Amino acid sequence: MSYDRELISNGNPMERTVGFSRAVRVGPFISVGGTAPVDPDGNTVGIGDVAAQTRQCIEIIKAALEQAGSGLQDVVRTRVILTDIDNWKAAIDVRKEYFTDVRPVDTIMAVDRFVNPDWLVELEADAIIGDWNG
Predict the structure, then answer these.
(1) Element (DSSP H or E) covering residue 97
(2) Which residues contact 106 (CB under 8 A, 6 or more apart)?
(3) Which is it for strands 75-82 and 105-110: parallel, antiparallel or unpaired?
(4) Nearest 5°: phi and psi at 105?
């Protein structure tokens, strides 16, 4: 079985520079890459506030999924990547607001830093749309 590959963009100029997409949909599968807490102009949202940054990341993921014909209800995996693992609870409390009913699997991890040192968190998500009988 062969599926078309749909590249989802949110207009970030770094997509072409670096060679990535905000999300990629192949058939019923959607992967949303590392999502930083930025506004449409590329400015960091919630400097110093991991909860505000987590919320921004999830809102960007939500928009990408909707552009791909999906939504948060289809998410099967999230990854929460922090620069300080001690911030895990604040990030997860926000994540729970969005995923309490869906309950995707999750990985929480820490890294030394992101490209922008103001980013405290990035999130990734994978989704599968609807009934898939592949």
Answers:
(1) helix 88-99
(2) 77, 78, 79, 80, 95
(3) parallel
(4) -65, 160
How is the chain split into domains, by residue range?
A: 5-128
pLDDT digits (tens, 9 = 90+) for 10-42: 777 777 777 888 899 999 999 999 999 999 888
DSSP tag of 43? P
Residue 68 to residue 60: CA distance in whole angstroms: 13
What is the DSSP track for 70-88? --GGGEEEEEEEESSGGGH
Q: Report pLDDT digits (tens) over 101-120.
A: 999 999 999 999 999 999 99
CATH assignment, 5-128? 3.30.1330.40
51 sits in which H/E element = helix 50-67
